Amino acid sequence: MFGRITGGIATSILFSCFECWLVSEHCSRHKFSDGLLYYMFGLMFQSMYLVAITSGLVAQAVADTFAFHPISEGSSFFLGGYTCPFDLAIIALIIGMILMSLFWNENYGSNESSDSGGMIDNLSAAVKLFQTDPNMVLLAVIVSCFEGSMFAFVFNWTPALASKEVPPPFGLIFAIFMMACMCGASVHTMVGNSVKPSMRLIVTFAIGIASFGIISRAAGDQNFLRTCFMAFLVFEFCCGLYFPSIGVLKSEIVPENVRTTMYNIYRIPLNAVVVVLLLSNISMITCFMSCGVLLTFALVSVFSIRSPKVKQDTSALRPLEGESETQALVGK
Quick one: pLDDT at residue 219? Predict the structure, then answer.
């Protein structure tokens, strides 16, 4: 339980801090082009999925190589088997910590925002935006519905692929899933500026709805394991296309002043969706059908989003003399 609490903190940082830092460095500090930002998002997720593929293969190898056994006779602590991937995760985290401490310059914001408000002011500004800008609410629906269905999928794909004849090689399957994600991220990079992020998301959600429709029919049937697996790969491809696309869309819509706060607020309904799906005691098939319904809500929300005008909005929100950025945002 303690690990889950710290994991929740780490996950919130993972899905907000890195992305906000990238957008701020790109758009505010270095003022690079929008086209390059599209490329950077695609490259970031391609690299992440490549590392995930390697991690899955290595995790499967070490889990198969070292037998699961207690540290000593009668001990409650064990080594080997499926504990090995957790040990490797410690090594990966240490490497990331070293790289960040050596090469990551802290982003302290601009000099003008040095007198901006604290957490309460940022929350007030975010709530104000929710009340005045429908795009913020629609983004929350999109993020909650798609990523909520993704997390529900994560908890259910292992029993869905359980075979009575041959135990599934979970590490290898995970690596294949990550390969499908990397293909989706690669498509994002290839289409670049030729297809708007909203259009990419529309295609992504439509394909995802179809894949969950197939999964709902095939999951749990030993005769359709291959069909279910192929549908899982299609959904993982959608995940790879979704994350860089939604990253670009959020960078266009969410103002820099409250970006980190807003990204973390989006995770509140997301976690609520996951908790409801997992604690409602519904069957695996019903859960997959619910994921398809969630993607339908996300699809409708994408159609409802107005054209982003974040550049005009952020310029209008510049603080007047003696006024902090947060005060200017709330005032508008």
Answer: 84
